[in-house]
Amino acid sequence: MDILLSILGLLGFILLTAGTGVFVAVEFSTTSLERSTIDNDVATRGDAASRMVQKAHSNLSFMLSGMQLGITLTTLATGYLAEPILAKFFTPALELVGLSESASQPLALVLSLVIATVLSMVFGELVPKNLAIANPLGTARVLTAPVWHFNRIFRGFIRALNWVANHIVRRFGIEPADELASARSPQELSALVRHSSGSEGFDQSKVRILDRSLRFGDATAEDIMTPRAKVDTLDTDDTAMQLIRVAHDSGHSRFPVVRGDLDETVGVVHVKDALTIPAGQRSTTTVGSLARPVPTVPESLGGDAVLRQVRLAGSQLILVADEYGGTAGIVTIEDVVEEILGEVWDEHDNREEEREVRQVGRSWELSGLLRCDELGDICGYIAPDGPYETLGGLIMATLGRIPAVGDRVLLPVDDRGALDSFAEGPEVRWEAQVESMDIRRVDKVMLRPVAATKKEDDSER
C-alpha cells in the first residue's frame, strides 16, 4: 500500500509540475504576442483556438491574475506533496551508507526539498518559458483553453484579488490596464529597427532610412530648413532674364523674391515662370510681378506638420520664421527628403564641395552647418545643450568670438559623457579646427579625437 501511495504521489508531483508549466507557458506566450498577430491568426484560421487566444488577450489582466493563482497553487501543492514522498526514497538510501535514523531523516527532507525545487523550476518554469517565447502563438493556441476554464472556475476569487491589487495600484496614482498596449512609440519602433539589422533582418541602408523616418516627427522646421545664409534670393526689381541666369548658375529652380532681404519676402518664383515670358520681354519683366505667395511656418513646427505644409504649398517651398518674426530660412521638398534619406545629389551639385561629412582617418571633415544633434550618430561626439544649433555655432560659443581659419578649440563635454568610436573610456575629448570660413560663417571644420589631458589653453591659436 505504501508503494502504491508513493507511486501515486510521484505521478501527482509530475502532473502538478506540468500544471505549473502550463500556466507559465500561457503567461509568457500571451504577453509576448502582439494584437496584430492575434487578429491576423483569427482572420486566417478563424477556429476556436485562435478566438480563445484573442479573448484571453483582450482580458489580459484577468488572465494574468488567474495564471499567478494557478502557479502559486500548483507550486505549493508540488512542494507539499513531493518533499515527504521523495524523503521516503532518500531515507533508506542514506541509512544504507551508514547514517543514523536521526540524521538521515532531516537530510532526506533537505535533499527532497532541493530536488523538488530544482525539478519544479526547470520543468515547471524555465522549459515552458523558453518554449513559449520561441513559439508564442502556437503555445497560446494549444494551452490557453484549459487556463481560461480554470479562471472561470475561480472567477470570483480572482476578481476579488484583482480588485485589491488594482486598489493598491491606484493608490500609487497609476491606472491599471486590462490589456497590454499593442501600439509602440516612435522611439520604441526606432530601437526595434536598429536591433533588427543583421543577416536575418534589415540591411544597414534600410535600417538607416526607417530610423530616420521614425525620428522625422521629432524634428522641427528649424532642424529641417536651409538656413537663410545659404538661400539664394532675387530682388523684386530683378528681371526674368536674371532669374534664368541665377537658376543656371545655382542649379536651383525656385527662389524667394525679396524686398531688400529675406525678412521682406514678397513671394516665390520658379524658373519656368521666366520661360513662359516671350524672349523679347524677359529683360523688362520683373520677378516681382511673377511672384506667388509663399506660406510661413514657425521654426518650432514639427516635422510631420512641416511636410504637410510643403506639400500643400503650390511652390513646394515655405518660409520659416523665428521667434522675433524674422525669416530663419526656407524648407523645400528636397530638404524634407534629405532629412529622411540623407544627402540627395543632382547633376548641378558639386559633391566634393558640398559634402557635409567626410572621414579622414580618425578625423572627420564636417560642414559648419551640420546640426549638433547629428554629431553623435556621425562620429560619437555628444554636444551639450546651449544657445546654438550647428557645429559652427558651437565653435563660436566655445571661442567667444567669430572664428578665423586655423582656429582650434577643445569642444565641451556633455554631462552624459562623450561617446567615442575610436578609444575606450571617458578620457577622450574632441578638438575642432576651422578649415574654411564663408565671410562670418564657419564653413568647414576638422573634428578629431584627442586625449582629455590636452589643456584648453593649448587648444586655441
Automatic annotation (TrEMBL):
Membrane topology annotation: Multi-pass membrane protein
Residues annotated as domain CBS: 225-284, 290-347
Pfam family, one: CorC_HlyC
Highest taxon in the source lineage: Bacteria
Matching Gene3D superfamilies: 3.30.465.10, CBS-domain (3.10.580.10)
Residue span(s) of domain CNNM transmembrane: 2-206
Xref: PROSITE patterns: CBS (PS51371), CNNM (PS51846)
An MF annotation (GO) of this entry: flavin adenine dinucleotide binding
Cell compartments where the protein resides: Cell membrane
Key words of the record: CBS domain, Cell membrane, Membrane, Repeat, Transmembrane, Transmembrane helix
One cellular-component annotation, GO: plasma membrane
Residue ranges of the TM segments: 6-26, 60-82, 102-123
Family membership: Belongs to the UPF0053 family.
Name recorded for this polypeptide: Magnesium and cobalt efflux protein CorC
